[in-house]
Design a protein that fits this description.
Elements lengths: L12 H17 L1 E6 L4 H6 L2 E3 L1 H10 L4 E5 L2 H10 L4 E3 L8 H4 L3 H9 L5 E5 L4 H4 L4 E3 L4 H5 L8 E4 L2 H11 L4 E2 L12 H10 L4 E4 L5 H5 L3 E2 L2 H10 L4 E5 L4 H8 L4 E4 L20 H10 L8 H17 L2
Parallel strand pairs: 1-2, 1-3, 3-4, 5-6, 5-7, 7-8, 9-10, 9-11, 11-12
Helix pairs in contact: 1-14, 3-4, 4-15, 12-13
The structure holds 1,3-dihydroxyacetonephosphate (13P) and iron/sulfur cluster.
């Protein structure tokens, strides 16, 4: 039997038993479970902490237990390992990568940086440790605007790897950062035409958009923000309906925290493809989480020399986000 989907349904005895086993193993091994909002609903439900990528890094830094299980994608596990080198950091599926991080190969990025030696390098957290090691300051979608605004208007800045987030930050800060040409395959799929159609069906609905989406979708949003910012907007808004243009996992927490509101997943270009699910995020399952707690693997390792260089720009971000 496989365990699937984000829906809140009647309890399944198999799933409930797995959850109990996970909680038992977690206590036995001295582990803490961190989950990103894009994880399957049942993983979010057993996590000790759920958050966006900034919150996961901030929480990881403060954890006292010896083992962190990062239910998210590989770069999130690497960030936790870089911040907590003495801890064991596990991930349920070692293949859970990120197309955006993969769109920025470290050697090519190094050449780009070397071609602009007078530029400060700002990297989105969705990057490998090797790319972070070439970076001056890391940002996430929740702090990118504030961190970019700490630099003078005419400062020479490189922003990588997400051209959509970088372009959005340029547009709202009046900066002219040089952009790396990368993108996320999930967020690039949201279709302006289909969202406009959906707005006709739900004229009162507010449109929530992650800044990794393309500019035309961002331009018609009521709220642009990180996963946590979109969730907070939904919680505090008087609106009853929301169209959500980001990975579908966030709907689980939105429905849980706002049971009297309606959340509609924005359709991708091809409505039959299910591509508003991140196939990497969804590689993690309850069974794999149980197995990784039981077996102590897969474990995240980062080359200590790379980790040493990558730690500085992450710590600078955390310092600027206090
Ligand atoms: P957040 O930083 O908003 O959690 O986003 C992470 C991510 O991978 C977006 O695709
Ligand atoms: Fe990476 Fe996109 Fe998946 Fe986020 S949704 S983890 S940016 S591939």
């Amino acid at each position: 039997m496989t365990v699937d989907d984000n829906a809140i349904t009647t309890p399944d005895p198999y799933v409930e038993d797995l959850k109990k086993e996970i909680i038992r193993l977690k206590e036995e091994k001295g582990a803490v479970i961190l989950a990103h909002f894009y994880q399957k609903g049942e993983i979010q439900d057993v996590a000790d902490y759920i958050g966006d990528s900034l919150a996961l890094a901030q929480i990881a830094e403060k954890i006292e237990e010896p083992v962190i299980v990062l239910c998210g994608v590989h770069f999130m596990g690497e960030t936790a390992k870089i911040l907590c080198p003495d801890k064991t950091v596990l991930i349920p599926d070692a293949e859970a990568g990120c197309s955006l991080a993969d769109s920025c190969e470290a050697e090519a990025f190094r050449k780009f940086v070397e071609a602009h030696p007078d530029h400060t390098v700002i990297s989105y957290v969705n990057t490998s440790a090797a790319v972070k090691a070439l970076t001056d300051v890391v940002v996430t979608s929740s702090n990118a605007r504030d961190i970019v605004e700490t630099f003078d208007k005419d400062a020479k800045l490189i922003f990588g790897p997400d051209r959509n987030l970088g372009g959005y930050i340029n547009s709202i800060t009046g900066r002219n950062m040089l952009l790396w040409d990368g993108a996320c395959h999930v967020h690039e799929q949201f279709s302006l035409e289909k969202i406009v159609e959906l707005k006709k069906q739900y004229p009162e609905a507010k449109l929530l958009v992650h800044p990794e989406c393309k500019r035309p979708v961002v331009l018609i949003a009521d709220k642009v923000g990180s996963t946590a910012a979109l969730l907070n907007y939904a919680k505090s808004s008087d609106a009853r309906q929301f169209i959500v243009a980001t990975e579908s996992g966030i709907l689980h927490q939105m429905k849980k925290e706002c049971p009297d509101k309606e959340f509609i997943a924005a359709p991708p270009m091809d409505s039959t493809c299910g591509c508003n699910d991140c196939n990497f995020m969804k590689l993690n399952t309850l069974e794999k989480l149980r197995n990784c707690l039981r077996d102590g693997k897969p474990e995240i390792h980062v080359d200590p020399a790379v980790a040493e260089r990558a730690r500085r720009p992450i710590e600078r971000m955390l310092e600027l986000s206090k």
